[in-house]
């Protein structure tokens, strides 16, 4: 029996690697003859860098600007002329000092610094995962790190963060374009929000970044002003609102293509090639729910495995999908931690033994 475990992280609890290790251990306990392989996956947010490195990319350490201006030790991953940059690892919520939210001033400058470092190292293809952003700056910080100049009425550079976007009078992109000449950018993007409005970056994602109603209004107006200066025809493009407007900056200025995150990661890790001879794929994430079905990692893994004729089961913390919806997504069965331990708090506190137990059930199926 050959099993391939390709599970996403259990957000806030376990990494992709930890989930895979626990499940694999459980399968081997009851099927010592089984050949169990693991592959790290992610959907473009946190974990994307780790997946690339596990797939053979070289980790290149970089010190860059965190979301509130402090230096952070981060990295990009490189193989040949391709670089993988994970916004979450440098400009994400996980990089806020003490977890203190900064909705008006957080910046994506560090992400731009990572891209610049990759380009300086000779990379001509950049894969940018943009999930988990701490800011709503329209990607302005990222662009400034790549050479763009955003000036106010007095000719001075504006401050960092989304609140300052309303002050922009002049946008000079010529230095950036020179630096990125000949560089292809692909953006791992799993949302279809426009830049502004009731479904835009500020309204939908601002609250999780700490923005109250009045702040959301300020940020939304700033993003609208920013769009009018840069590319007004792209403000309503699906995905423009991703990562606080980084999607817009990537489309409008970097000439990027927005691609579903899991599709990019599956290609990076050679997932389809690794399906050859596999009898069962185990995927999973913290919760199987409606969001799972809309471009999340589990759905992408299941679709790829199903296309190759390989059965798929899923592990999760909790399952909110009925059998019909699971099968429609290409998942033959789901195994939840709550099947073994109904107390969700215990599942969160000590998930590894429970995941091993699910691995044993899968091995005996």
UniProtKB/TrEMBL annotation:
Molecular function per GO: glycerate kinase activity
EC number: 2.7.1.31
Biological process according to GO: organic acid phosphorylation
Cleaved signal peptide residues: none
Keywords carried by this UniProt record: Kinase, Transferase
Enzyme kind, highest EC tier: transferase
Similarity section: Belongs to the glycerate kinase type-1 family.
Protein name from the UniProt record: Glycerate kinase
């Amino acid at each position: 029996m050959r099993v391939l475990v390709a599970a996403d992280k259990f957000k806030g609890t376990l990494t992709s690697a930890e989930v895979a290790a626990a499940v694999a251990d459980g399968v081997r306990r009851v099927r010592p003859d089984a050949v169990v392989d693991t592959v790290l996956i992610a959907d473009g947010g946190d974990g994307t860098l780790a997946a690339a490195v596990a797939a053979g990319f070289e980790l290149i350490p970089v010190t860059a600007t965190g979301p509130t201006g402090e230096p952070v030790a981060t990295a990009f991953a490189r193989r040949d002329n391709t670089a993988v940059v994970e916004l979450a690892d440098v400009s994400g919520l996980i990089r806020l000092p003490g977890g203190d939210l900064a909705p008006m001033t957080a910046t994506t400058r560090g992400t731009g610094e990572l891209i610049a470092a990759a380009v300086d190292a000779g990379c001509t293809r950049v894969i940018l995962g943009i999930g988990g952003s701490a800011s709503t700056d329209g990607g302005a910080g990222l662009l400034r790190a790549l050479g763009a100049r955003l000036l106010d009425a007095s000719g001075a550079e504006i401050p960092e963060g989304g609140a300052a976007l309303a002050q922009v009078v002049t946008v000079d992109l010529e230095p950036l374009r020179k630096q990125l000449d000949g560089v292809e950018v692909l953006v791992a993007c799993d949302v279809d929000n426009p830049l502004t409005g009731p479904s835009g970056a500020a309204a939908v994602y601002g609250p999780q970044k700490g923005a109250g109603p009045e702040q959301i209004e300020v940020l939304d107006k700033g993003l609208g002003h920013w769009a009018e200066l840069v590319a007004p025809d792209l403000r309503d493009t699906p995905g423009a609102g991703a990562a606080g407007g980084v999607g817009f900056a990537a489309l409008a200025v970097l000439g990027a293509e927005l691609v579903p995150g899991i599709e990019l990661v599956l290609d990076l890790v050679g997932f389809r090639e690794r399906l050859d001879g596999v009898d069962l794929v185990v995927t999973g994430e913290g919760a199987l729910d409606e969001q799972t079905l809309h471009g999340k990692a589990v759905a992408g893994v299941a679709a790829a495995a199903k296309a190759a004729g390989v059965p798929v089961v899923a592990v999760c913390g909790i399952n909110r999908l009925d059998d019909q919806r699971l099968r429609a997504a290409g998942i033959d069965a789901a195994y939840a931690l709550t099947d073994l331990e109904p107390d969700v708090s215990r599942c969160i506190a000590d998930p590894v033994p429970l995941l091993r137990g699910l691995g044993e059930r899968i091995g005996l199926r």
